[in-house]
Specification:
Layout (H helix, E strand, L loop, with lengths): L15 H4 L1 H11 L5 E8 L2 E12 L4 E2 L6 E2 L4 H14 L20 E6 L4 E5 L6 H6 L13 H8 L12 H9 L16 H13 L3 H13 L20 E3 L6 E3 L1 H4 L16 E2 L1 H12 L3 E2 L2 E2 L3 H7 L10 H4 L12 E3 L4 E3 L14 E4 L5 E5 L4 E6 L2 E2 L6 H11 L4
Parallel strand pairs: 7-17
Antiparallel strand pairs: 1-2, 1-16, 2-3, 4-9, 5-6, 7-8, 10-11, 12-13, 13-14, 14-15, 15-16
């Protein structure tokens, strides 16, 4: 499936010369060695106004970035899982306020960390159960082991839960492990990035009676025609996969991460609803267009319009932003003026964050610096694909936002 420009940018309110600043700016990242390659797509009103690629998917072979290049999208899996869960919500299977222990009994009788060390943590009983909306908004108190900022994420690492997954544990077994660890905070009282969406994926499995792989294939990826999106890359498609890089600590140059990168080439024990998918620009473009069209694409409707609008409002208590409500730690977003909906960060006010963008925009990104956003007000979508860990190394997402919006003149 290709993803080429379909309309003159001037016909959909862009200044074409201004929009082409994206190309010249991001080419410098490749030319000076900070990125191996990238693919960027910008649409308006459902038409592709910019589709550009530069560099290689593998520096050692010189193989170029192409339309069918496979990218590890990591946390851009989360919106897909959130859509899957809300499809079940629309069918009446649960209320957002339901306790998840109704389906996942291991999450009953949780405890919350309050003080102490990794060797002697002190915990108290949770006074509020984890509810479905807590998973969708990352207000559950679950965290990530790789954040490396708190005693609780240290306990995750000690239990074997880290960036490289949970060893040989599958999704059900991983949920049992996470449920046995203390929460970082009382559910609903803070925002904290973690395995909430993985647990949400397990909820999808239990309610639907299917594995997450089966549900995605039959209910989301298949109907949308996302035929290149998968959980791992087999031998036949391995040459299409982009190599995973980190930034050299001294030079900043893109440096291969062979151990972490190799995980994409074998079937994982854990089908991670929070970080498991591998996709192409063309496939994820179809997902963003479904969102822009409020749940429907090419006659296939996954969600109702009211549901998509509801998901993409700020659901943090009191309308708080992440700057005031976050527990700190790792996040793939700026904090000021940013709320969080049911599976997406939401820009309530673009001014505090000091990045040119639109109010009402919703978005997320992945660990390897991939990103997307949907702006329903301007009828605009944008996607960035590259493979650099961590996503915070260069301000790629902020740069893309300012370059897209400065080109929008109508």
């Amino acid at each position: 499936m290709t993803l080429e420009q379909t309309i003159d940018p001037d016909h959909v309110g862009f200044d074409a010369k201004r929009l082409d600043r994206i190309r010249s700016h991001f080419e410098r990242y490749v030319d000076d060695g900070r990125l191996a390659g990238w693919h960027i797509v910008v649409t308006r009103c459902g038409q592709v106004a910019f589709s550009g690629a530069h560099g290689t998917r593998d520096l050692s072979t010189g193989a170029p970035v192409e339309a069918d290049t496979l990218w590890r999208i990591y946390s851009m899996t989360k919106p897909v899982t959130s859509v899957a869960a809300m499809m079940l919500y629309e069918e009446g299977h649960f209320q957002l306020t339901d306790e998840i222990s109704r389906w996942l009994p291991e999450f009953a009788d949780l405890r919350v960390y309050t003080k102490g060390s990794l060797q002697a943590p002190f915990t108290v009983p949770a006074i509020e159960p984890i509810r479905v909306w807590h998973l969708l908004t990352h207000t559950s108190g679950l965290t990530y082991g790789f954040i490396q900022e708190t005693v609780v994420d240290g306990l995750y690492r000690s239990a074997g839960s880290d960036l490289s997954g949970q060893g040989d544990l599958d999704l059900a077994e991983s949920c049992g492990m996470w449920a046995g660890l203390p929460l970082l905070f009382q559910p609903g009282t803070r925002w904290g990035y973690g395995v909430s969406t993985d647990v949400l994926g397990r909820l999808v499995e239990v309610i639907s009676g299917q594995t997450l792989e089966e549900f995605f294939a039959e209910r989301v990826l298949g109907p949308l025609g996302m035929d290149d999106t998968r959980w791992w890359v087999d031998e036949a498609d391995a040459p299409r996969a982009a190599t995973l890089y980190g930034a050299h600590p001294q030079t900043g140059l893109a440096t291969p991460l062979p151990k972490l990168g190799a995980e994409a080439f074998q079937r994982p024990a854990l089908l991670s609803g929070g970080a498991g998918l591998i996709s192409t620009a063309a496939d994820y473009h179809r997902f963003t267009q479904m969102l822009l069209r409020e749940g429907e694409l090419d006659g296939v409707r996954l969600l109702g319009p009211h549901t998509v609008r509801y998901m993409t409002r700020n659901h943090l208590p009191g309308g708080a932003d992440l700057q005031t409500f976050s527990s700190g730690g790792f996040a793939e977003t700026t904090m000021e003026g940013i709320g969080f909906g049911l599976g997406f960060a939401v820009i309530d006010n673009p001014v505090p964050g000091k990045v040119l963008s639109g109010a009402g925009q919703y978005y997320w990104g992945g660990l390897a610096s991939t990103a997307f956003w949907v702006d329903p007000v301007e009828q605009l979508t944008a996607m960035l694909f590259t493979q650099l860990v961590p996503s915070s190394r260069w301000p790629l997402r902020a740069h893309l936002r300012q370059l897209v919006y400065q080109a929008l003149i109508d």
